Structure formats: structure tokens, C-alpha cells
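Title: Prediction job returns without error message
Component: structure pipeline
Severity: low
Priority: P3
Assignee: unassigned

Description:
Job completed but the reporter wants confirmation the result is attached to the right record. Sequence as submitted:
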Amino acid sequence: MTMITSLLDQMGATLLFLQRILRTMIFKKLKTHEIFEQIWKVTVDSFPTTAMAGFFVGAIMTVQFAMQVKEFGALGYLGALATSATFREVGPLLIAFMLSGKVGAFTSAELGTMKVTEQIDAVRCLGADPIQEIIVPRFVGIIVSSFFLLAAGLMMSVFGGMLLGELFAGVNYEEYLRHVPLIVSPVSILSGLVKCGTFAVVLATICTYQGYATTGGAKGVGRAVVATAVTTMICIVVMDWMTSFIGDIILTMVRGFRP
């Protein structure tokens, strides 16, 4: 019971923190220079990791599907099946995990250090709002950069799949891509992008909250980083299920209204 109560308290505090961020974004002036600086910083630091993760996700999916479709003589559909699965589910999920470990942990550690060394309190003492000055630029920067990093990772997954299709299954790039438009529909691409955006919001909210709420000195910073990594991964999995479930309901409703 105590664990459930603590979990509910954390969820409520995180949602209230998100409410404060959104209210600040709506009613106060945004620090555009700081936002662009954060976008650039996160993108440059995380692009190599995201690109590598996306490349190997596509390669792994191609190898796994090649083992199955080869038995049915359907290697021509290898690229379409691997790309569809990567775009809809596996790619956004695994790449988000990579970003949660790199971007989320770094941001929570940075904000946590600022909190325990009283830098955030100093900003408040100078008459400025720490949410406006420190949190919002990082929140918006993480969302924007994570969204495009996830999208870039999905693009890299196609190249990884093409390379492994050639090396592992003997499928050249023309044959690999030929049937992709038949299975990878605009709905599949939209589903992957929606998941990317959703995971980015989850990551930005949790890492900024954990860093801002850090207490207890250096040990508190360590606890905040661990809590960020664990909570982000759990929430990403839950949101992946929710977006898939809601997406299937919407798609079924749309198909039901067609004449």
C-alpha cells in the first residue's frame, strides 16, 4: 500500500509540475535564445547515439524477418515488413530508451546539481522565475530535438535494414524498397511520429521534474538520475501501449465510417 501511495504521489507531483510548465509557456514570455541553444545542444550531443541506435534497430529487424520470410519464398517483402514494424513499434520504443538514458539522465543530473548547490534558489532570489528561466527552455528543447532525433533514427533504420538485407539475405536495395509503399502506409508513418512526439513529452517532463525536485546533496542527484531512467522507461512502455490502443480504436472507427 505504501508503494502504491508513493507512486500516486509521484504521478500527481509530476502532472502538477507539467501544469506549471504549460502555464508558464502560455502566460509568460519564452526565452527563445535559450530554447534554440538547448535544441542545438541536445541534437548535436545525441545525434550519433540516435543514428547508431536506429541503424542497428533496422538491421536487427531485417535479420529477424529474413529468417521467417525466407521459408515462404517472400524475400521480396522483406524490406516492407521490416520497415513497417520498425516505424510503427520497435524503432520509436528502442530509440526513446536510448534518449532516456542519455538526454534524460544528463538533464536530471544538471538540474539536480543546480538545485542542491542552490543555483535555482539564487535565480528565485533575484526576482526571476526558475521555471521560466531554466526549466521551460530545457523542456521545449528536449521535446523538439527528441522528436527530430527519433524521426532521424527511424530514417537510419531504413539504411541499416537495406545493408543487412544485402549482406544477410542477398536482397539488393531496389528489391528491398520496392514493396515498402504497399505496407508502409501514411498511417504507419503517422503512428511512428505520434509515438515519437509522445515519448519526447514524457522524457522532457520526467527528467525536468526529477532534476528540479532533487534534495539531499550529491546522493540526491544520484537518486534523481536513477529515478529518471527507471520512471522514463516504464512510462514510455505504458504510453506505447496507450498510443497503440487508441490508434487502433481511431483507425477502426475511420474504417467503419467509410462507404
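Comment from assignee: result matches the submitted record. The chain has one domain: 30-253.
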